Amino acid sequence: MISLVLKIALVFFSLTIAISFYRVARGPSMPDRIVGLDTISVNLLSMVAIISILFETTAYLEAILIIGILSFIGTIAFSKFLERGVLIERKSNK
What we know:
Blueprint: H1 2-26, H2 30-54, H3 61-84
Helix pairs in contact: 1-2, 2-3
Keywords: Antiport, Cell membrane, Ion transport, Membrane, Transmembrane, Transmembrane helix, Transport
Membrane topology: Multi-pass membrane protein
Pfam families: MrpF_PhaF
């Protein structure tokens, strides 16, 4: 019974990722696209966790951590770029 519920959850997460891809591609503004990318990463994390439960293994837990860290860094980098226009600020000695 639990495997059926987990498989149904995988289908729903796949649908939400497809909807989020639409938001990334056709978002009205750049912040909407960033939120779409963040939503995709959270859903991907959830899908990997469900797959890990279905296969009864802990081998995918490192992948979950890596996806989470990269998602966080990406969101911060995009937000900083939107706010300032550059990712790395270089101070000139004038």
